[in-house]
Every structure is written in C-alpha cells, then in structure tokens.
Amino acid sequence: MLYPPSSSPNRTKAKSLYSPYSVAVDAASSPAAVYVADTGNHRVLGWRDSANFTSGAPADLVIGQKDFDSAVPYGAAVRISESSTNVYDLQALKDYGGGLRTPSSVVIIGDYLFVMDAGNNRIVRFRRPFESLDAGTAIKPDLVIGQPDLKSNLANQSSTANAAPTASTLKTNLGSGGIQTAGLAVDGSGNLWVADSGNHRILRYTTGDVTGPSNVDGGTASISADLVLGQTDFNTVVANAGRYSSATDQLSKTTIRYGGPLTFDSNGNLYFADDLARVLVWGPPFTNGKAASRILGIYAAVKGAPALPAVNDLTFGFSLAGTTVQNAVFTGGPRGLFCIGENLFVIDSLNHRIVRYDPPSSWPAEDLPNGVFSPHMTNVYGQNDFSTRYQNTADNLEPNPWGYNAPVAAAYANGEIYITEIGNHRVTVRPFDSAARTFGAATRILGQFDFPFKAPNFIEGSEFSGGTIPSIGVSIGPSVAIDRTSDVPRLFIADTGNNRILCFADARNFTNQSRADVILGQVDSYRSLVNSPFNNPATPGPDGLYIPADVKVDPQGNVWVADTGNGRVLRYPNPFTRTDGLLTPDLVLGAPDFTSTVATQVARDRMYLPSGLAFTPEGNLAVADLGLHRVLLFKQPSVSGQTADIVFGQVDGTSYTAGNLAEQLNSPRGIAIDSFGRLFVADTGNSRIQIWDDVNSAYSDGLPSQFALPAGAVGVPISVTIDPKTEAIWVAESSNLNRIMRFPSYAELLGSGSIASNFSLQVAGPRGVVLDGRGNPMVMDSASRLTMYYPRLTVVNAANGFSRVAPAMLGQLRVQGATLSADGASASGSPLPTNLGDVEVLVNGVNAPLTKAATDNVTLIVPKGTAPSGTAEFLVRQVSTGQILGFDRISMSPISPGIMFQGDAIYTTGPAMALNQDGSENSASKPAKIDQTLTVFLTGYGNFDGLPDDGLAPGSEAPIPGDVLAYLLLGTGATQAQVVSSTLDPDKPGVWRVKVKVPTTLNNGTYTVNIVYKSTPTLIPPGSSTIQVRPYVVIAR
Questions:
Q1: Which parts of 434-543 are beta strand (E)?
Q2: Which parts are the NHL repeats (predicted)?
C-alpha cells in the first residue's frame, strides 16, 4: 500500500499549512523562533529563525505528529490496520499524550511554548522545543492544564455532556459545545489567560503555576485558574443568549457566548471577541465576574438614524452557522486580536480585513440614548476603504502581498507582523511602521511557495483532494482512471478540490511522491483556480475546470472529464500524443459551447451536475447526472452540444424527479459498463446498484432496470467498477461501514441466486476503485489518498522457514498465486545483484541483494540497516515494467539464527549444510569424526558494527560478536559441543559459519544440530517451546 498518513486535503509536508489559526514569535530566543498552529493538520510547526526564513521554507520541527508527512487527530502514535487504509488506534494515540487535535492557539511565556489543544479540551506546555530537537529527544509536553493527565481529554473532565466546570477544567472541543478557535493570551505579568469557549468564560492562570514544575511523568499538581470573567464563579455556566435573542444581549457586559481571541495592550487592558461579533474590553484590576468597561463592534441606532452599510467602520462581519437562532454560532466576525502598544488591532475575518483603534483613552464616552456606544475604527488594512470586503483586495483576484482571505490571527515582533490566513492557508510577514501605525505589503510567506498560491497544504503536482458541490453541499471526488490502450498504462486523477486533472505517464511507477507529467485545467502545478485563469465559478471557459468529479479514457486515449461545477463533460485529445502543444478540450457535452454557464432548463443536451462517466464497448458515452437523477447515453459523441440519445432514470429529457422504482434513480454517482454493454449505476440515494442490460439496444427513455444489488448487499454505494478480465463487480460504499466490496460477475450472480460479496475491505470514506493490469484494486478515498492493494507477501528465514526476520538475514519471499520471475535466475559471489530475473525487492525503500529469483519465491538478504524492531515494508516488483507483485509489512527482530539445509531449500528434517574437518560435506558416507571440528552454516546473525555493506562478502572469516552455544541431540538427550569459532563466511554474503568440536563422548549416529545464539535457539520458532525443524549431521567414532 502507498499512502500518506494524513486525513487532510492534498499531501501534508514540512512546508505546508492547512487552516493555520495562530502564530507566535519567541522573541527572547536566539534566533527568534516562530511557531504556527497548523490547526487543520493537527500540529504545531516551528521555524528556527523567524527573521531570515525564505518564502515557502520548510519547518524545522513538528509538534503533535510523528513526522512532517502525518496529519491525524491525536497525532504522534499512528497504528494502521493491516486490513485497512485508515484505521487508527485512537486509544493508542491518546495514550501517547503528545499528539494534538485541532490546536487553535500558541503563546510563549519565558522558556515555554503553550498550545491550546482545543480538540482535546486542554492546554499543553513544551519546554524549549528546539533544544529537544537539537538533543534528538522527543518533543513532548511537560505540563497539562484542563486534564488530570496526558491520556485524558474529556470536556470538563466528565463523560456527561452538561457536567459543571471547575477551576481546573476546560471545554473547548467543537463536539462538546465549544468552538475550536479558543484562544490564549499572556498579560504583562506573565499570567496565562484562556478563552474557555464551551463554558462561556475567560480564565486566568498565574505565572507561578504555569511556569512551575512538570505535572506529568510523575508530577501530580493540578493547575487551577485563579480568576474568571463571563461567569460569577468557577462552577457556573450562563451563556449570553445570542446576537438575535434580543437587542439587549448584544449590550451585556457580564455575559459572553463562546468566543475565542483575546489580547492585552501595554496598559493591561484585556480585549476579548465572542460569538456576538463584538469585542469586550476590561481594564485592570480584575475580579471574578467583573463587567466589561466597553464593547466594540455594536451599532446602537437611534430612531430615524440611517441603516449602516453591510461593511462599515463600526461593526464586524458576521454570519450564522446553525438552523435556529438558539444554536447559531458565528462563522465570521473577529477571529483574532492583537495589540501594539496602546493600539488594538481587530482581525475582522469575514470582511477579510484588519482594523485599528485609537487607544481607549481617546474613545468618546458612551451615550446610548444618542447612539454612541462603540468607538469607530481608525484605519483599515487589506481593503481600500471601510466599505469593501474583497478576498485578496478584489473580486476573483489571486492571493497577493497586499490582501487577505479570512485572516484569523497575528503576532508582532521585531518590527514585523506575522498574519495567518485560513482562506489562503498561509502566514505572511509584513513590515510595521511604528510612527504611522501602519503595515505594508508582505515580504515573506510560509505555507505557500509564493504569494499567488492558496491551496491547502501547498500543491506541487503530486497532491489531490476531494471537493464540495456548493449548490447541494455534497462532497465528491477525487477519482482515478487507468488508460490501458497505450504501450504503458497511463494514470489519470480527477483532482476535484484543486480543479484539475493530473496525468501520469506510467501508472506502474506511481508513488505518493510522483508529480504529474501533464496537468489539465491549470496553468501550472501550484495553482487551483476555479475556471482558470478567471478564478470565477460564473465564468467557464476552455482552459479551466470547476469541481471535476470523474475522469475516463476512451479507446483512442482521449481523456473525458465530468466538469461537475460547470454542468458539462469535456473531451481532451490524448495529452501524451498531442503535437500542437495545446492542453485544451476539443469537445463539450452538456453545454452548447465552452463558455456557457450551467443551464436553468432541463433538456437532453444540457447537464446540471455530471458525476460519473463510462464507455460502452462500441465507444458510446454514458453520463450520470447527480443533480437531475438520470443517466444520459450519447452514441458516438462527436459534436459539441450533442443531444443525448437515451435517458435512464427519467421518462423523458425534461423530467428530473428522484424516485425509487426500477425505472428511476436518486442522486446517481458512479457508473460502469461491462464488456457486454450492461450499465451499472451507483444509485446512491436509493442505496442500490441498478443494472440495465445492453444499453446500446435501449429503444426509449425511462426503461426499467433488469436487476439491482439492494441496500442490504451494497450499503450506500457511490461508485461501481467492472473488472475487464473477470467481469467482477467492485462497489465503493460510504455508509458507516466505509468499505469496498467485490461481487461475482453479473452472470454468476444470476446463476447463483444469491447476492453476496466475496471480498470486502474497510476504507476511510472510499470514493472509487480502479483495477491495475493484474486486477489489483487502487482505491481513492476521502482522505485524499490513492491506496494500491497488492497480494500479500510472506518472508521467512531462508534456513529454517521461521517467520522471525532480522537485518542481514537470508530470507525467502513468496507471493501466493503470483509469478515472480518467469525465467528464474540465481547469483553467487560478491557483490550480489539487486536485480535478478527481472525482479527486485525493496525493504523500506532500500534494494535488497538477491541470490535467487524463481517463479514462486525469491531469496534475498534483508538490508542490514533495516530497524531490528517494529515492522518493515517489503515490496517485490518486476523491474522491466515497474509492476508491483506483492507487498506487506513484516515484523522485525534483532536476530534470527537458522541452520541451513543442504540443497538450497527449507526442510522440516534433513541434512544440515556442514563441512567436516577435512573439508568434505558431511553425509552418511562421510561422517564427522569425534574430537575433530565440524563447520555448520547458518544465517540470521543480525546487524553489528563492522558488518560489510549489503551484498558484499568480507573476504575473510570475520568474527561475529555474541554468545554462541552448540548442542548435538539424539533422542531426548543433548550433548554440548565446544564452539571453536563464530564467523562470517568469507565468500558468501549473509552466511555464517559456526565451527564446533565433536565431543568424544558421542557414539555413531545421526544427530540434530542446535545452535543457540544470544539465547535464541535455531530449532524453536517464536511463540513455541517445541522443536520444529531438525537439521542433522552424521557422527562416527
């Protein structure tokens, strides 16, 4: 399997960001480090030198994940099920303690980095992370606030949803009622303040408590807040009723609702933004339940006063999430606050701007009867005036150094402002003019390679993700197709979320690091524009795409794309053979031309949301239209705007009603056609697979299907694929079971009278299945991953057949049912080849030396650098084609001593490979003599200092370190033999010689040889206490 261990869109990298919610600069460190809460990737990234990083620089450290490529909740201890692409042992992740789940804020106090781990209802502290990095030690928290230990994460430390809070609990997880933008701030005395959003309160923790000794790894001190605002005490939860409950609730200075960002100015004033799209201000000194002194962002209109424009210099942007006023939570408004000196800066996220206020001492006094309540803003950044709210400073403009797209947080340090944007997935650095109190265009950037780019996790041509259809809110894509008409199989991916098609010249060599050889729909590999180059959903054209959900290849190698967001299907001439240099389509279906928008009238020649494509053997095209609940059949499509010949799922070309009868469909997604012309439709809304027999002979619209796979068999199917060799039916279904299933062919299903799958595999949100040339499934899932499944291989010790596998060991690899080397080959001497019989074996990506390649097995030397514990990835493939023949993760051990049998094979009982003192091979006709030496050949000594490089012989009998014992067994008796030497074979890589002296007490006979190396016997397999193999030698007096 090949996959990135990430649930984020595109591919997580050291230089990428996904919805970064916070930034902090450690100005006291040298050099000043910068930390970013990479919230969507469940991690915190650190750059060592905030002043000198270059744009797009990769982070120097990661906190909360095991490496830069991972992005899973809880983070750092991922265990993948051997039978699934995405099964995480969440308890193991929680037990690790250092993983993060939606970190929403970061701050620095002295030597410590504090992280608001909102998804885990806690704050965790890290001491000097870069010191840990430099020392090579794990970056783990040494203090936790809000939980009793690092393994716990319950809201208010209780499994009861409405449990009362205490001074030592937090409730910030979105699923627990909080919003995961809960913020942290530090006052002038070094006290830590937190927006405990789910408890509708603000808490203060003293600097002595939060910078004190560790309370993990043996520490037991629970950290409690010493002050609360927004509530009268630590055990009460009274939320402000909400912006639209009544007008007076907006004016309340004692109650708050959710909220997130908070900050302090140089005079000690506290600013806090809550769910009512307002900023509350408290001046010191602070007491429990103290009322705010002022509120920003509220327009107190008097009778007869004109209404304010939607965007103005008084209020903040605001939108609702929730179906009723009672559960409405703001999704816009001020997400961030920061101060420089006495000036407050409010990040008005929904309006894509930052606004500045004069110091509170200059604000006009409140005069509510005369409409004076909140002060006006003084300056605006990111917009040309107070009345506009453009993303990136103008409609449909690409990101740039001047504007913002949903900014959420900022930090000021050393004359520069660091600003995070969740819309552009970046952090920009802008110079600050302290005299004019303004900041200029960005000069540097993190999370993107350059200013015009905005994709989450920074795309470069190897990443892909799903998308969402705005009109119906349905997640769709990505999808994958293979072209088998060319000399080498081509791979195509509909990168739905990035509005492009990735084209790979050779599917056999595809890995998760491969960059597309050709990209359709974008001008380069870094952009993800909607309808490129316009970046406008309302402006389709021949050069761009909008939420392309499916891709297929016709027998001529032309690429067909379901351009879902534009309501059309496009045909691109074969991009690998096209000679005119153009990468634009030459035909469009579902629209009269390339610039027409989605039709408002239903017709046979128009589409609304095309979601799936399939070709008949004759080259006719079927198109599933998710939005109009139908499948259109175009016979030999050759003209743009062509009218569909047959409609399935509707009675005519103008109807679009969903239904569950045999002649109806409900939100069909994927479709497939077998070699007999049968149409298979993933009738998603009806939880079935509809099957029409021989669609080419269909004579009218609205014909009923001949057969269906019901919900009990297929769940909620979203795609269907037919194996071109076996006609087996593969279904991807996205119910709670999340699985792919294989059913027998249509003919077999009818003949058996039973509808049941003969294979299933659990997958995280499967989106589709395609089969390689050997029938192995390649699965696209909702975690933006393409996972290849191959036959499982086995590796055993090539001497005794035990499953104990060690570095530097001779191993035997097999793949059941697969032909490994058609002709077979063997090798000896030194160095050994890594390509033998057109076969190679990679162990954790390292080529293994080979001694034999047969049709059913390969003998290899496990690379010595392979870790002696955990698992290692073994992959065997055909060299000439790159075709992967087998794969698995094999458990590793430090050593695996095994005595070799004569004849280059593994036996249960047989003559050991052994030489008598005179150099003759031990046998019944040439037995070993008592009081003479006997040399026994083994493998599996493991790695040690001084071991030659992989595949090389030492040239001399180099000693092998470690205790060795030797025994000769007859019946139930065992006689210990003196070990004369234990050395590497001078001429044979991977082979080990143990020379023993035959005891004088032995009688004539056949004796089983047992060598015990480092307390590990050669005859007893792991997990057993009995002898399983008996290599023997013959002894004579």
A1: 438-439, 444-446, 467-469, 474-476, 479-483, 490-495, 500-504, 518-520
A2: 183-208, 539-575, 608-637, 659-695
